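User: Here's a chain of 241 residues. Predict its fold as tokens.
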Amino acid sequence: MISSARPLLARGAQLAAAAEEAGVPARLFGGVGVGVLLGERWPEACRRDPGDIDLAARARDRRVLVQVLEREGFFADREFNALHGRERLLFRDGVGVKVDVVLDVLRMCHTIPLAAGFETEGPTLPAWLLLVSKLQVVELTAKDQLDAAALLLGCRYEELEADRVARDCADDWGLWRSLCGTLRMLRRQPPPLDADEQLRMRGVAARLLERLETVPKTLRWRLRDRVGDRVRWYELPESPE
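Assistant: Prediction complete.
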């Protein structure tokens, strides 16, 4: 249940529902996605007020999605969309709420394909993909830390699909390195949680780390592992503004 104290979560869920009704799946991610997915499972210590609405959609649905957002009272950032519209779109409404749409892929520190995010029903990306989108951030902000901790605490372990994530990392050393690094950091420096929550979060992080470490790696992964941290393995994402 989305609390009335979180109007942006309700607005995000409304947009996802409107897109679904129009026949174009759009999935929430970011802080709004975490809050909508977890609902009452959202740990109190990890709750925050997101700054905007992040939506993932398919590039082939771009035209219909634009129509949906315009019907919902959002106006396109035409200059930004003309430059970046192949993979990203920006919209705002009359009171300053921003919607950031990514199409097919999420390009941040790593390039995360999003096709798997539309395989299941629901207003958000699946839990495992939400978690990957947070763990892949190398320069983790306090907001990212809270969101990652919320998913580790609030989701059932099965929802995090450790085997699937591990298989993806088994062929991508850079993604593996970032996910493992963030999980270790969360274990060392957890956000302000109570003792029981810290223990549980560290336990889930440890299980994920073990799976990432022990999954059989490809030749491509092993060759990149020889280079290690001597060559940067991630990109530094630019803000859309």
